[in-house]
Write a sequence for this structure.
């Protein structure tokens, strides 16, 4: 059973070392889940003397006013033999055998946290005492409740102390040791008052009566000790502490305990209660009760620890890896993040993620519809055909077929295809940019680093702009190629005109009749439709080759080249993570370390059971 208290001792020390003080925080707290015994009492209630009696050593600071200004977690370890010694958690390699030096270190460590003011702090001091004269027990000594602030303290000190005490004892895992002086009315006891607020049924409160030997003659504490004055689930325990005269004379604890036993066994009013009174009995009762509580809490503690480890690991995973310290590590980290973004971008294009299908929509819907909307009738109107044919003939009419006229008509008509071709390039460019934005938002690591995010965005968009320009050049080139070399076979298959085309003595505008010009326009339109059909298939190929394929192959190539030339400081600027996230990751990592350590400790004890 001693292992149970040692388990809680270890976990409490780990909590303090890793910053878990059980205070309200965004991090899960293990401290609040651990069973503890908090010692509560007003100033001058004899609270410090009770603790020293349980320990059997004179080691706590004394004086007037508020002496205890930080919680003192007192962990008692029973050893079989050897010299008594003490250790502080903040001085793990130093053993104290002089308990006068322990008292001084408690005062000095308090001042280190609060300064030499008389203010209080909620950060606990950890003190472990190893002795053959103690029981295995952990107690938390809290600042004494007070009703007025003394000089050098803020006006809020009364409320501050009360709030600190309440923050400990209101937790359901806290056992309350309420210390009250017997020579004062129990109804006015500070300890009982605050314990009643958080534990109205008295189910986790132990009442301790001090100064029984200082009561007025003719009065006794029997009604209080037997629970008639104020009933608790557990019996009240009376103690007789050393008097101030005893302390001044340095009466040791062994003699004080002996005198305490004699007092209860020889005083007629308390003889029948003697076996259940005294600081030694108090220590044994608390130790046994703490063991029982810890044992009942282990299954719930295991469940809490396992659940919290999963939650902490999940949040750490969402926050991403911490930033590397060296330049090489930073470069590798940036490259890995960029590769993750690049992979997400490719998955959009390849259909693993949504969005890539919009590119096909351009080729299957937008481009054909735009080509269909082209107004070839304007270029091939009777007036325009006559104008271009006659202008192409110049001073001498054509002999067989108006070849130059055909060429001019075809070229002027094909030029209009450049608009839909360029629009297709621009639309695909917009789709790719949208996919870049979407991929950046879906790359969790980029959310950590705003500067890197902006650089990747700019680099990707710059690459897409260059690809668009190249795609436009190649696509327009396809149209220009159709203009520069006509498909001869098309015209060879046309019916030959046996007429020579009119009388050269007539006006140039009367040179051809309407039916002949209409036939020329019809032939040109047929040829244009053939070319449009060809371009409808070749333009998508050009766009995909110049934009989509290149985006998949080399979206960040130029950025990677520039990245390799950057120095450590420049790389660090790219990894400018929000300080709040960095701090959160560090806090989570510490808390995860605590819970994993706790998991191993609790599991070891559970298996031993």
């Amino acid at each position: 059973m001693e292992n149970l208290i040692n388990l809680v001792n270890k976990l409490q020390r780990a909590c303090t070392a890793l910053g878990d003080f059980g205070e309200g925080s965004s991090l899960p707290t293990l401290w609040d889940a651990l069973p503890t015994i908090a010692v509560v009492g007003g100033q001058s209630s004899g609270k410090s003397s009770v603790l020293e009696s349980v320990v059997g050593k004179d080691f706590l600071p004394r004086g007037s006013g508020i002496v205890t200004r930080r919680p003192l977690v007192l962990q008692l370890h029973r050893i079989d033999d050897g010299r008594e010694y003490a250790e502080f958690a903040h001085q793990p390699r130093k053993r104290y055998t002089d308990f006068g030096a322990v008292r001084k270190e408690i005062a000095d460590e308090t001042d280190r946290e609060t300064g030499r003011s008389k203010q209080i702090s909620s950060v606990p001091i950890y003190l472990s005492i190893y002795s053959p004269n103690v029981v295995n027990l952990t107690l938390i000594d809290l600042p004494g409740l007070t009703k007025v602030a003394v000089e050098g303290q803020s006006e809020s000190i009364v409320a501050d102390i009360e709030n600190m005490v309440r923050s400990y004892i209101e937790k359901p895992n806290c056992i309350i040791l309420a210390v009250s002086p017997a020579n004062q009315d129990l109804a006015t006891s500070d300890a009982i008052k605050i314990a009643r607020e958080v534990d109205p049924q008295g189910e986790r409160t132990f009442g301790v009566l001090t100064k029984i030997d200082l009561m007025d003659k003719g009065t006794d504490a029997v009604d209080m000790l037997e629970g008639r004055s104020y009933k608790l689930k557990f019996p009240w325990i009376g103690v007789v502490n050393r008097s101030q005269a005893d302390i001044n004379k340095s009466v040791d604890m062994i003699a004080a305990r002996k005198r305490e036993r004699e007092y209860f066994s020889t005083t007629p009013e308390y003889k029948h209660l003697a076996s259940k009174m005294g600081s030694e009995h108090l220590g044994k009762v608390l130790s046994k009760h703490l063991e029982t509580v810890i044992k009942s809490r282990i299954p719930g503690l295991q469940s809490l620890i396992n659940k919290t480890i999963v939650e902490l690991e999940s949040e750490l995973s969402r926050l991403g890896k911490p930033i590397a310290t060296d330049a090489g590590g930073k470069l590798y980290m940036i490259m890995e993040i960029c590769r993750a973004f690049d992979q997400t971008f490719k998955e959009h294009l390849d259909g693993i993620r949504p969005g890539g299908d919009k590119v096909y929509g351009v080729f299957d819907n937008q481009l054909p519809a735009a080509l269909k909307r082209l107004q070839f009738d304007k270029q091939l109107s009777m007036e325009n055909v006559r104008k271009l044919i006659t202008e192409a003939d110049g001073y001498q009419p054509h002999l067989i077929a108006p070849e130059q006229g055909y060429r001019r008509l075809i070229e002027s008509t094909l030029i209009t295809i450049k608009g839909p071709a360029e629009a297709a390039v621009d639309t695909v460019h917009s789709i790719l940019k949208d996919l870049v934005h979407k991929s950046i938002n879906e790359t969790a690591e980029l959310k950590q680093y705003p500067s890197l995010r902006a650089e990747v965005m700019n680099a990707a968009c710059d690459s897409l702009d260059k690809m668009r320009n190249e795609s436009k050049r190649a696509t327009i080139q396809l149209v220009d190629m159709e203009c520069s070399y006509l498909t001869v076979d098309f015209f060879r298959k046309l019916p030959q005109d046996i007429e020579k085309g009119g009388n050269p003595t007539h006006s140039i505008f009367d040179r051809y009749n309407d039916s002949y010009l209409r036939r020329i326009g019809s032939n040109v339109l047929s040829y244009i439709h053939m070319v449009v059909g060809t371009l409808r298939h070749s333009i998508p190929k050009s766009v995909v080759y110049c934009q989509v394929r290149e985006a998949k192959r080399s979206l960040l190539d130029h950025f990677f080249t520039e990245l390799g030339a950057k120095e450590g400081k420049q790389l660090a600027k790219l990894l400018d993570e929000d300080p709040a996230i960095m701090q959160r990751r560090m806090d989570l990592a510490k808390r995860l370390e605590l819970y994993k350590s706790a998991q191993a400790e609790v599991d070891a004890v559970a298996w031993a059971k």
About this structure: Residues 2-19+34-211+220-317 form a domain with the Rossmann fold fold (CATH 3.40.50.300). The first strand starts at residue 36 and ends at 41. DSSP finds 22 helices and nine strands in the chain.
